[in-house]
Amino acid sequence: MEARGATTEDIRPERSRWLLGVLPLLLIAAAIGIFAALGAPGLGERRGPPAEELAVEKTVLEPGTIQLTIRNDGPDAVRVAQAQVNDSFVQFSGADDAIGRLESAKVTLQHAWVEGEAYEVALVTSSGGTITHEIPVAVETPPTDLSFFGLMALLGLYVGVIPVALGMLWLPWIRRIPPGWLRGVLALTVGLLAFLAIDATLEGLELAGEGSQAFGGAALVFIGAVVSFLLLTGVSEWLADRRRQAGEKGASGSTLALLVAVGIGLHNLGEGVAIGSAYTVGALSLGAFLVVGFALHNTTEGLAIVAPIAHLRPSLRRLALLGVIAGGPAVLGAWIGAAAFNASLAAFLFGFGAGAIVQVIVQLTPSLRDAAGRTLHPTAVGGLLAGMGLMFGTGLLVSI
Fold it and tell me: Which residues are bridge partners to 119 per DSSP?
C-alpha cells in the first residue's frame, strides 16, 4: 500500500498554527511603526536637567599624562568641558564631540603626576555636572609589547598551570585510600569548588560595581552564571546520552573529571583577567611571596580534578590535558586583563566561572552518598568543611 502524500486538509491546519503564532508579532511591529511615524504622540520632550552618567573603564598613566577611557552610562549625550586633577584645572584632549549613550571616548589629561601619590580626577560636563575618579596609587602603565605578553603568560603558568599540575600528583595517594576515605576526599573536592564559586561571585560583584552599569552591572554576574550552568548542563547531558547509547550507566569518572577541569578553568579565566588588569595599573606585587601564595591556593584545584578518577588508570596525556584545561585559561585571562580590560566583561566571566562550578558540584554530589544513601553523612560534612577551610586558609596568602 503506497504512502499517501500530504493533502490540502493536512496543510491547512499547519498554516493556521503558524499564522496564529506570527500574527501577534506582526501586529506589534505595525503598532510600533505607526507610533514612530506619528512622532511618538503623548511623550513630548523630557524637561529638566540632563541625566549625565560617565563611567571610567580604564586608566593609563604615562609620564606627564593621565588617560581615561570613559563610557556614557546615562540616557543623554555628555560633553566634557573641563578637567581637574586634585582640584586644579588641567588641559585635556579627546572627547571633542558629545558622547552618546553607551559610546566611549578617551580623555588625555596633561598633568605631571608623581609615582606613588594619590590623585582625584574630576571631569566637568557642559551642563556643570562633575564626574570623579580616584587613582589610589599612581604607577606608570607598562607598555603592552611582546615581552609584556610573555610576562603575562609566565605569570599565568605560575598561578594556573603549575599549581594545578602539582595538585594532580595526589592521584597515587588517592588510589590507595579506603573507599570511605575516598568519599571524604570527594567531599573535600566539593568544598573546594563551593569556596571557588562563592569567591568568583563576590569578585564579579565587586568588579560589576566598578564598571559601566548600563550593561547590567551586578546582573551580569548572575547572567553569566546561568548561561554557563545551562551550557555545561547541556554538554553533560549530551555526554550522558552517548554513554547510554554505549550501554554505560551513571556518570563516568572521566566525565566528572573533565567537568571539574572545565569549571576550574573558567574560574581561573576570571582570576587571570583580574591579575592582568591589576598588573597593568601597577597594583600587583610580583614578589616570591605572592607566587607561593597563589601556588598553595590553586594546588588544591588539582586534587579536585583527580579525585573522580581515583579508580581509573588515565594516561599521562589525558592527565596533562585535564591540567591544561583547568590551568591554561589563567594565561588567556591575564592577556585579556592586561590588553583589553573591561570591568563588565570581567564581571560576566567571573559569573560564568561560578555557574560552571555550581553545575560541577551538582554532578559530584551523588558521589558523596554512603551505603545508607545519605549525602551529608559525618565524613562528607567533615570533607566539605575541610575543603572550604583549606581554600580560605591558602587564600589568605594571596594579596592583590
Answer: 135
Cell 598588573 -> residue: 279
Q: How far apart are CA 31 and CA 306, in angstroms?
A: 59
Measured between its terminal Cα atoms, the distance across the chain in Å is 77
- How far apart CA 296 and CA 159 sit, in angstroms, is 9
- Kindly tell me the sign of the dihedral angle through the C-alpha atoms of 197, 203, 209, 214: negative
> What are 42-50's contacts with CB under 8 Å, separation 24+?
49/127, 50/74, 50/76, 50/77, 50/78, 50/127, 50/129
Q: HSE (CB half, 13 Å, CA atoms) of 108?
A: 6
Q: What is the pLDDT of residue 45?
A: 61
**Spatial contact of 183 and 387, defined as CB atoms under 8 Å apart:** no
- Which residues of the chain fall below pLDDT 70? 1-14, 40-51, 211-212, 214, 243, 245-252, 278, 280-297, 340-341, 394-395, 397-400
The pLDDT value recorded for residue 283 is 52
Give me the half-sphere count of Cα atoms (radius 13 Å) on the Cβ side of residue 141.
21
Cell digits for 226?
546561568
CB atoms under 10 Å from CB of 280, counted, come to 23
pTM exceeds 0.70, yes or no: no
Task: Please choose, from the candidates 224, 253, 246, 251, the residue with its C-alpha nearest in 3D space to the C-alpha of residue 236.
Answer: 251
Give the Cα separation of 327 and 164 in Å (integer).
6
Query: pLDDT (tens digit, 9 = 90+) per residue, 278-312?
Result: 676 555 554 444 455 566 667 777 878 888 887 78
